[in-house]
Specification:
Elements lengths: L1 E8 L3 H18 L4 E5 L4 H7 L5 H7 L4 E6 L9 H13 L4 E7 L14 E7 L9 E5 L5 E6 L4 E6 L8 E5 L5 H17 L5 E5 L5 H18 L3 E5 H10 L6 E4 L1 H15 L6 E5 L5 E5 L16 H13 L3 H16 L13 H15 L1
Parallel strand pairs: 1-2, 1-3, 3-14, 5-12, 10-11, 10-12
Antiparallel strand pairs: 4-5, 4-13, 6-9, 7-8, 13-14
Helix pairs in contact: 1-9, 1-10, 1-11, 5-6, 7-8, 9-10, 10-11
The structure holds adenosine-5'-triphosphate.
The site of adenosine-5'-triphosphate has 16 residues, from loops.
């Protein structure tokens, strides 16, 4: 029995999450597995009503579940950043979900790349450090020393910055920081995955020729881990990686990236796969509570119209059940999604005629028929 927290959120979140829950329940029924779902009204409606983003009580209750299944947040009535920082980023930080995992595979004929190119890539993005620490500031001329305070599950770090300039120009800066421990635990996850999947190598993207301090540490630790696991690591600069992903994606299996480059490359990965309608993501803490979500946002322009493609949310549910230890169910779900796509049992964004609910029903039917 698994206990899963559901946070449908805003916009199309509740519509696509309802389909993901339905599909995972259908796959579980076939295997006589029971899933207990606990629903949370976290999102913009509650925020506008009560001012609550993510409360301590939410965190406490979410943490009692085996995983979190998340829809989307975002609302035109709320200034950008408030919900994202107050809910999504806080959740990732509080549960120390240090790996962001995003698969990218060729969903023919929806991939914009040529048909003969079959690829199946798992992007792993370090989710807590690098240039997305929020460690930055601005100054003009000379400012007194300021302290940037960084608080993570792994450490507390105070960074004292003294800025002295010869001009009156305004300056702004953003500091990228990585720790040996942060890279080690992330690399362990990547190499464990490579070992379990019997892969011959992993690829690590960086910019070690320019950001030498940061990514020399990254490379040193990846080399150490590569020797420890006996699995080769191939280092690539992120710019070369972007080109290679379009030209020859079939070359890659597991691609490990620091936070910022991972953010960009995974969007490229989503696009070569077939776009937002099929892109799923997991924020993973292998020793704690992980969260799974579609990559797309709340898409207010199509909310409440039955137009949203539920496949990304369904594939996020597949990743969740894989991670919880039932990849057999995950395979079943992925098989049914592929069949539905082959038969054009999809929503309008993929050239089909079905509503969100009908597209979910079609996948449920395929799972039941195969069981
Ligand atoms: P947010 O502010 O929450 O990020 P957004 O509309 O800016 O929302 P997305 O939700 O990522 O960003 O979507 C961008 C556009 O892609 C949407 O306007 C919508 O038309 C389309 N889109 C996104 N997700 C889906 C989906 N699941 N099915 C169909 N179209 C989608």
């Amino acid at each position: 029995m698994y206990k899963i927290a559901v946070v449908p959120g805003d916009g199309i979140g509740p519509e696509v999450i309802a389909e993901g829950v339905k599909v995972l329940n259908a796959a579980a029924e076939v295997e006589s597995l029971s899933i207990e779902w606990e629903w949370f009204p976290i999102g913009s409606e509650r925020y506008l009503r009560t001012g609550d983003l993510l409360t301590e009580e939410d965190i406490d209750r979410l943490g009692k579940n085996d995983a979190i299944y998340f829809g989307a947040i975002g609302d035109p009535r709320v200034a950008p950043g408030i919900l994202e920082k107050g809910i999504l980023i806080t959740m990732r930080t509080r549960f120390d979900q240090y790996v962001n995992m995003r698969p990218s595979r060729s969903w023919h004929p929806y991939t914009p790349l040529k048909r003969e190119r079959d690829f199946d890539i798992t992007f792993l993005r370090e989710n807590t450090e690098d240039f997305y620490m929020g460690a930055g500031g601005s100054f003009q001329k000379k400012e007194p020393t300021s302290t940037i305070k960084i608080r993570r599950q792994l450490y507390d770090l105070d960074l004292k910055v003294e800025a002295v300039s010869s001009t009156d120009y305004e300056f702004a800066y953003e500091v990228g920081i990585m720790s040996s421990k942060g890279i080690e635990r992330f690399a362990d996850f990547a190499f464990e995955m490579a070992k379990n999947r019997g892969m011959e190598k992993i690829t690590a993207a960086d910019k070690a020729n320019i950001c030498t301090h940061l990514y020399h540490l990254w490379r040193r630790i990846f080399k150490q881990k590569s020797e420890e696991y006996g699995i080769p690591v191939e280092f690539m600069y992120v710019d070369a990686m972007a080109m290679a992903l379009v030209r020859s994606p079939e070359r890659f299996g597991i691609v490990a990236c620091p936070n910022m480059f991972g953010d960009i490359l995974t969007d490229l990965g989503a696009e070569i796969m077939g776009g937002l309608g099929v892109a799923a993501s997991g924020n993973i803490n292998p020793h704690g509570v992980s969260m799974f979500e579609p990559v797309h946002g709340s898409a207010p322009d199509i909310a409440g119209q039955g137009k949203a493609n539920p496949i990304a949310a369904i594939l996020a549910a597949k990743m969740m059940i894989d991670q919880l230890g039932r990849p057999d169910l995950g395979k079943q779900i992925e098989w049914a999604v592929k069949r539905a796509m082959d038969q054009k049992l999809v929503t309008a964004d993929m050239g089909g005629k079905l509503s969100t609910q009908q597209a979910g029903d079609a996948i449920v039917e395929l799972i039941r028929a195969s069981g």
